[in-house]
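dumping this here so i dont lose it
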């Protein structure tokens, strides 16, 4: 039987990562968080102190290797998972992921993950660009206010105090940049199923996705 591919796309804070992890644990699928891969490139760009807005400063992309495996992201073999969630990386990731050379390389790496067996990949362009032939495409969304609320709660559990309005503005800015870029903008694929999680619990969203997978397996 060929490997089953689930593509989950959606904006920041729509619950993609938590839902994807739970669904994969339940089904034994391999989860690939493509946002973590773009974050790893952003970390490297910041380390090199390049002007992230200048496409001509990305020649370093030819020297790097990004691998996502077992919930961790490796940059040239080094596990950088602990360094990619800072607000500096978060707020620069949209600029870095607009660059064609960056996207071409990440999409190549992501397509290579098909060898991992049954996979669930989450991101912004998985159903539209990376795997247009995915067996199931889901577009997860929620209102910006709900997503900001979730981010604040998540930060609280990590011991980080955050200001709701600042997070809300950052989420809206990232939504705008991710959905207005020229290459692979965030958008729902024509054949993706829309799941609005605003009034759903994590468990309800998981059950819905498990049901959609089960219908197609
Ligand atoms: O999903 P996460 O918030 O970790 O993604 C970080 C950033 O990486 C996004 O804001 C987006 O700019 C970029 N990204 C992307 N394409 C993907 C996944 C993430 O452009 N497939």
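and the seq i came up w/
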């Amino acid at each position: 039987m060929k490997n089953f591919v689930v593509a989950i796309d959606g904006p920041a804070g729509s619950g993609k990562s938590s839902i994807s992890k739970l669904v994969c644990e339940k089904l034994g699928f391999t989860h690939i968080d493509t946002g973590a891969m773009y974050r790893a490139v952003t970390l490297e760009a910041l380390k090199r102190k390049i002007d992230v807005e200048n496409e001509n400063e990305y020649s370093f992309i030819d020297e790097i290797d990004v691998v996502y495996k077992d919930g961790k992201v490796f940059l040239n073999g080094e596990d950088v998972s602990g360094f990619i969630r800072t607000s500096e990386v978060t707020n620069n990731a949209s600029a870095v992921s607009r660059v064609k050379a960056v996207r071409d390389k990440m999409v190549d790496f992501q397509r290579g993950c098909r060898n991992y067996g049954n996979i669930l990949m989450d991101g912004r362009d998985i159903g539209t660009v990376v795997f247009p032939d995915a067996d199931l495409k889901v577009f997860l969304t929620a209102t910006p206010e709900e997503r900001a609320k979730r981010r604040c709660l998540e930060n609280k559990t990590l011991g980080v105090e955050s200001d709701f309005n600042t997070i809300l503005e950052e989420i809206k800015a990232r939504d705008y940049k991710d959905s207005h870029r020229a290459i692979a903008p965030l958008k729902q694929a024509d054949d993706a199923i829309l799941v609005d999680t605003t009034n759903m619990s994590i468990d309800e969203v998981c059950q819905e996705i498990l049901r959609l997978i089960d219908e197609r397996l």
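The pocket of cytidine-5'-monophosphate is lined by residues 12, 34-35, 38-39, 93-94, 97, 123-125, 174, 178 (CB under 6 Å).
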